[in-house]
User: Fold this.
Amino acid sequence: MLRRGAATMVRAGRASPGLRLPGGPRPLGSLPVIGTRPYGGSTAEQGGLAGPALLERIIRVDHAGEYGADRIYAGQLAVLGGSSVAPVIKRMWDQEKEHLAKFEELISRHRVRPTALLPLWNVAGFLLGAGSALLGKEGAMACTVAVEESISEHYNNQIRTLVEEDPEKHAELLELLRKFRDDEMEHHDTGLQHNAELAPAYALLKSAIQVGCKVAVYASERV
Assistant:
C-alpha cells in the first residue's frame, strides 16, 4: 500500500521539476509524513468527496493556509524588520501574498465560502510569526521550515487526490498547486540555509508547530 501511494505521488509531480534541497534534488515522494496520516490524502481519505465538493474543500483550506502564512511572515517582519534576514523574509512574504491573491480569486470564481476561522488564523498566524522571531533569526527560520514543510506535504497530497480523480479536468488547479508547492519547498530550503536548525529546542519547536498546522488544516476544511 505504501509503495502504491508513493508511485501515485511521483506520477502526480511528474509534470513539474523535482523539489530541491541545497544538497541536490529531492524526489517528490521523499517528503516526510507527520503523524499517522498525511495531510489531505486520497479521495477516499477525504471522506469520499469528489467533484465540486472536493474542489470546494481544497480551495477553502488552501486559501486559509495561504492567509495564515501571510500573517506569519507579517509577524516575523514586525520583529526582524531591521535585521540581516529582513530581505529574505520579505521575499518569501511577497510570494505568499501572490499565493493568497490567487486563492482569493478562486474563492470568488467558484463561489466557495471561506473558512469561518479566518479571524483566528489572523491573530494566531501573526503571533506565531512574531513569537518565533523573538527567539532570534534562527527561531523565525525554524518556524518557516516547519510551516512550509507542512504546506508542501499538504499540496502533494492534494495533487495526488486530483490526479486520482481526473487529471485533465483539474489540469489548471494541478498546475497551480505544483507551482505553489515548489515555492513552499524553496522557502523550506531557505530556512535551512539560514540556520533554522540552530534555533533553541529546534526539534520540539518544529514538532509543535507542525501539530498546530495539522489541526488548522483539519479545522479549516470543515468549518
